[in-house]
Amino acid sequence: MGGARALTAARPEAVAAEDDASCVASLPADRTIVIPPGGCTGWHFHRVRLDAVVLSGTLTRVLHDLTVEVHTEGTTFVEPAGSGHIHLGHNLGTEPVVLHVTPRQPVGTAFSIPVPAPAGATSAVCGQHA
After folding, report:
1. What is the secondary structure of 90-113 as a DSSP string?
2. Is 15 left (phi over 0), alpha (psi -120 to 50) or beta?
3. Contact present, 25 and 14 (Cβ < 8 Å)
4. pTM for the whole thing?
5. For the segment 55-77, what is each residue's pLDDT rounded down to a tens digit?
């Protein structure tokens, strides 16, 4: 197979070249995220792009520039990578928010990186103080 090891069901997230075990390619690692009513993710960013689908509920996102985006069931959104794109997710509804997310990240990489609230954020946003 051109020098690459075959993927196995036990480790579908990575494949390494036989002649260089340090050469690892990442593959999608789908996740389901559930945010209960009143729940909040806290301010964070992702090291890799994240594609998301809202399976149920309504997600309210506050972005790095304090703009607000509301995503309802069946909608999709992208969270860009990097510390310039901090954000939080908040469930202001009465039913759980269920997200299906697909990041492209190397094995062992943290899914999100917590950060302090951006300047100007009020304590009313998920109880996070600026």
Report:
1. E--SSS-EEEEEEEB--TT--S-E
2. beta
3. yes
4. 0.64
5. 999 999 999 999 999 999 999 99
